[in-house]
Amino acid sequence: MSKRPLNVGLVGGGKGAFIVQPHQKAIHFDGTRRVVAGALFPDPKIALEEAANWPYPLKGYGSYDEMIAANASLPADQKLDYILIVTPNFVHYDPAMKAIKAGIPVFCEKPLCLNLKEANDLVKAARKAKIPFGVAHTYLGHWTSRLSRYIVQAGLLGDIRWVDSYYLQGWLATKLEATGQMQAAWRTNPKLAGGSGCGGDIGTHALMQLRYVTGLEVTAVSAQLETFVEGRALDDHFTIYCKLSNGGKALVRASQICIGCKNDLGIIIAGTKGTLQWRQENPESITICLANQPDRTYWRGAVTPGDGFLPKDMPAALMAEPTIPAGHPEAFHDAFARLHRCFEADVRKYQAGEPFACDGSKYANIEDGWIGIAFIETCVKSSSKKGAWTSMPKKI
Ligand SMILES: NC(=O)c1ccc[n+]([C@@H]2O[C@H](COP(=O)([O-])OP(=O)(O)OC[C@H]3O[C@@H](n4cnc5c(N)ncnc54)[C@H](O)[C@@H]3O)[C@@H](O)[C@H]2O)c1
Questions:
Q1: Structural domain includes residue 330
Q2: Residue 321 located in a structural domain
Q3: Residue 16 falls within a domain, yes or no?
Q4: Are the beta carbons of 145 and 265 closer than 8 angstroms?
Q5: In the chain, which stretches have pLDDT less than 70?
Q6: How far, CA to CA in Å, does 313 sit from each of 212, 316, 323, 324?
Q7: Do 229 and 280 reside in the same domain of the chain?
Q8: Domain containing 292: what range?
Q9: Ligand 1 atom closest to residue 136's alpha carbon, by position in its atom list
C-alpha cells in the first residue's frame, strides 16, 4: 500500500473557529495524513487571508465550491483524499453532497445536517457512490469506549436493563448569543443549528455513545425539550426517556445550563449481572460494579484478560489499539486521532479498490448520522405533544 500521506481539505476553520483545532492536530498525529488545503471562511477574501496566515502551508480557496470543483477532475493521486467539514450545521449538507458527487470521501462534523430530508439524500448519495463517510462523534475514539463496547456486547454485564447517557454543560446558562459570541450565535438559531439546540449539539453525542457501546437502538421516545434562558429560540435542556430495542429503558439527557459543568459526557449501563460507568472528563478508565464484589477499575493499556471478569480471549484488534503505555494520559485529541486513523484505513482501501468497512465499529458512519437526525426530529415531535411516546422512523 502507498505510503504517500493522505491529503485533507478543510471546509471551515478560519477566524477563531473551535473544532477545527483538535481535528487538524489529530489529522497530523501519525504522519500519515496532513492538511493541505482549505476553504476556511464564507467570505472569499477572508478565506484566502486566513489560509495565507495558517501556521503551515495551506492551499487556500475562496469557497468550498471552488475547492471541490478544482479537485473533482484531478487524477486520484493528486486529488484531495478526503475533506473535513467543520462548519456550523447548516453548512454540512451542501459541501458533503458536492464532495460525494466529486468522488471525495467526507469526514463531517455532527449533527450530520439540518433535517431528515437532507439526511436521506446524503445517505442515498453516499451509498450510490460507495464512498467512505465518517461523522465526528469524538468520544467513540476513546479506547475505553472500545473496551466498554466489547464488555457490553460480549454480554459480560448480562441483559441491559437501563442506560443513563448524559452530556452536561454550563456555558449557555446566560444569553451568551446576545453578546455575538460566534459559537453561541449559530447554535441557538434554528435556521443554522436545526430543530433542537442542546439536543442537536450534545444530545446526539449522548445518543451515539449509548448506541455505540450497547449496540442497542432507541425505538421510541418521550421527550421534553426545554428552554431555561428567556428569549432563546431553541432548547437548552433536553431530557429524553427512551425505549430500547431489547425491551430495556434509557435516559438520553443533555443540558447547557448546568453552571460548573464543562463537558460532562458520561454513561451508566446497568445489566442483570453488573453496571459499567464511564465519564469523558476522566476518560482513561471505566468502572465495573458486580453484585457483592469490590468495584473494578480498568485502565486503558493495563487490562489483563482472564482476570475473573474479562475473558482470556479478548479480541486482538482491541488489545492492540492503545498507542502509549497506561499512565501516560490519552484524552480528547487522541480520541479524534483514533477516529481519523480508522477513517484513513477505509479511505486507503477505497482508493485501492478493496472492500472497506465504514460499518460504525470504529467511527460513526453516515447511517449513524442519519439516526442522530431522526432522533432529534422524533424528540421535537414528542416534546410538542407534551412528551407523548413517539416511535423512531424505520431505519433508512
Ligand atoms: N465533535 C465534537 O466534539 C464537536 C465539538 C464542537 C463542535 N462540533 C461541531 O462542529 C461544527 C463546527 O462547530 P464549531 O464550534 O467549531 O463552530 P465555529 O463557529 O467555531 O466554527 C465554524 C467555522 O466554519 C466557518 N464557516 C461558516 N460558513 C462557512 C462557509 N460557507 N464556508 C467556509 N467556512 C464557513 C466559520 O467561519 C468558522 O470558521 C458544528 O457542526 C458543531 O456541531 C463538534
A1: no
A2: yes
A3: yes
A4: no
A5: 1-2
A6: 21, 8, 20, 22
A7: yes
A8: 142-325+373-384
A9: 1
Domain CATH number, residue 341: 3.40.50.720
CATH number, residue 244: 3.30.360.10
- 22 CB near ligand 1 (under 6 Å): no
* Cβ contact 238:254 at 8 Å: yes
Q: Which atom of ligand 1 approaches the CA of 19 most closely? A: 16
Supply the pLDDT for residue 391: 98
pTM of the complete model: 0.98
pLDDT of 3 = 83
Give the per-residue pLDDT at 108.
99
Joined together, the cell numbers standing for residue 347 give: 479511505
pLDDT single digits (tens) 252-306: 999 999 999 999 999 999 999 999 999 999 999 999 999 999 999 999 999 999 9
Residue nearest to atom 5 of ligand 1 (CA): 19
**Residue with the nearest Cα to atom 6 of ligand 1?**
19
Ligand 1 mean position, distance from CA 8 (Å): 17
Helix spans in 29-72 (H):
44-52, 64-72
State residue 242's pLDDT score. 99
Q: What is the pLDDT of residue 115?
A: 98
Q: Are residues 168 and 308 in the same domain?
A: yes
204 and 282 both lie in a single domain: yes
pLDDT at 2: 67
Helix (H, G, I), strand (E, B) or coil at 199: helix
pLDDT for the residue numbered 1: 57
For residue 233 and ligand 1, the question of a CB distance below 6 A is answered with: no
Q: For residue 85, report the phi and psi dihedrals to the nearest 5 degrees.
A: -100, 110
Distances in Å between the alpha carbon of 260 and those of 73, 108, 224, 286, 311? 50, 29, 23, 23, 39
Number of domains making up the chain = 2
CA of 286 to the centre of ligand 1 (A): 31
Note whether 154 and 185 are same-domain residues.
yes
CA-17 nearest atom, ligand 1: 20
Residues 154 and 236 in one domain: yes
User: For position 134, what pLDDT does the model report?
Assistant: 98
pLDDT for the residue numbered 120: 98
Taking the alpha carbons of 365, 367, 373, 379 in that order, is the dihedral positive or negative?
Answer: negative
Using alpha carbons only, what angle is made at residue 208 by residues 165 and 258, rounded to the nearest 5 degrees?
A: 45
Instruction: Tell me, yes or no, whether 356 and 269 share the same domain.
Output: no
Q: Is 41 in the pocket of ligand 1 (CB under 6 A)?
A: yes
